[in-house]
Amino acid sequence: MQDQEQLKQRLTEIGGRFLRRTVSEMQRLRELATAVSEADAAGVTEIAQTAHRIHGGGGMFGFHSISEAAHQLEVAAREWMDPDSHERSDLAQRMEKLLADLEQAVQRTAQQQNVL
Amino acid sequence: MDFLETTQILALPVALLPRVLIVDDDPLLCERLEALVESAGFQVRAVSNGAAALAALRKDGASIVITDLHMPDMDGLTLCRTVRAERFDRYIYMVLLTAQDAETVLLEGLAAGADDFVSKRVSPAQLIARLRTAQRILGLEQSLRNMIEEKSRLATTDALTGASNRRYFTRHLGREIQRSRRDGLDVSLLLLDIDHFKQINDRYGHAVGDEVLREFARRISASLPRKSDWHARLGGEEFAIVLGETAVRDATEVAEHVCKQIAGTAFTVSCGSIPVTVSIGVSGTEVVLPPSEASVDHLLEIADRCLYASKDAGRNRVTAAQRHPPT
To answer: Which residue, among B23, B29, B71, B126, would best test binding to A if mutated, counting the most A CBs under 10 Å from its CB?
Structure first.
């Protein structure tokens, strides 16, 4: 039983570090947000990769709202990267909204977990 | 092997809990997985990419691999395919870990050789349950390996004396002859036949005859000078000793020694003690001309002729082949 308690504490501690890292990744994502309007493919690729990592990690650490919001952002970024994409201007607007959603999810979870 | 023996072997405990290798480019995910897997009692190690995983598998091995799908350099699918293409000593149970659960991704993963496919959202309890499944399957593989090993041992062992049997003798002497031809070294063969064994059986019964055979096998085994020397029971009261890298002259000395070890002290059996002697014939690759002609049958034929020369000359003695074997 004590082992179970120790394991739980350890997982919470690693989860806390994941959240803190995600908070700092949000800063980078905000910097990259202009990449969409500037049609900077490398910037959008980085958004997709970062969102993908947050999606997977969020799922594993049980932060499902973060994971889901990151997934939506990743899907939109990949859609933008698709050479056949015709709706880049719409996507730019959508991604701004998705980024804000993700930020909100991260803030809320971080507050719930007391890591800020 | 009967049913009972089979179930006993299947129930053998796996000596060690399987070792788990975690492959993920995100160090925090690795850390979480390590903590979880370790808490279930597995030995665990984590690396950050496919190439490092392969290196770890080749060097230290692991029974279970939990790998991320998307990684820089070598991704999870390539890792699965490479592990399946490479011949490892034991089966490696591959678990793909992914954020996506699209059907196409799943099918691709299974086609690449993954045994299981786990979402990153998997609960700790489910992840451990899936590792237990892996452990059960690996345990089955291990018990099958044990059974095959045991069966092959039984198939090459003489049940009465525990010595190797004729099947083993033929196969392994063949290999030794081939090796000797390649390396230009001699192999010698001693053929042994217990003198008047039929009289022992007739006088004391087969049970005592069996005791004599067992003691005989024990004594010749104890007389072998080197670890690489070996003996076999060819049938009835006929035995063979194979001495690698040994010329006929040195093999003859070994034969003389064995002869003395048998005759020197009477055999103690359940009904008292019985004097036993042995006749021996010695042959070797060097007496076969040309040496490239040497074969199991050839060496046996020459040793057999020498053995009968020993019998004809009054038993309890050694006859060694000359370069031109006695006709």
So the answer is: B29
Q: What is the distance between the alpha carbons of residues B64 and B134, in angstroms, rounded to a whole number?
A: 7
Size of interface A-B (CB pairs under 8 A): 47
Number of structural domains in chain B: 2
Q: What is the CATH number of the domain that holds B249?
A: 3.30.70.270
pLDDT at A81: 85
Residue B79 and residue B109 in contact, taking contact as beta carbons nearer than 8 Å: no
Cβ–Cβ below 8 Å for A7 and B26: no
Shortest CA distance from B25: residue in chain A: A53
Candidate list B237, B238, B256, B301, residue with the active-site label: B237
Give contacts of B120 with chain A, Cβ < 8 Å: 56-57, 59-60
Q: In degrees to the nearest 10, what's the CA dihedral of B138, B143, B144, B150?
A: 150
Instruction: Examine residue B159 and state whether it is found in any structural domain, yes or no.
Output: no
Residues B170 and B314 in one domain: yes
User: Do B185 and B292 share a domain, yes or no?
Assistant: yes
Length of chain A in residues, anyone? Answer: 116
CA gap A115, A105 in Å, rounded:
14
Task: Name the closest residue on chain B to residue A51, using Cα atoms.
Answer: B99
Residue B100 is assigned to a structural domain of this protein: yes
- Domain holding A72, by residue range, is 2-112
* Average of per-residue pLDDT across A19-45: 87
What CA–CA distance (Å, rounded) separates B95 from A80?
Answer: 32
Bigger pLDDT: B100 vs B104: B104
- ipTM of the predicted structure? 0.88
Interface of B with A in 204-223 (CB under 8 A): none
The residue range of the domain holding B284 is 166-320
Provide the domain count of chain A. Answer: 1
Whether B220 and B192 have beta carbons less than 8 Å apart is answered as: yes
Query: Residue B85 belongs to a domain with what CATH number?
Result: 3.40.50.2300
pLDDT at site B10: 43
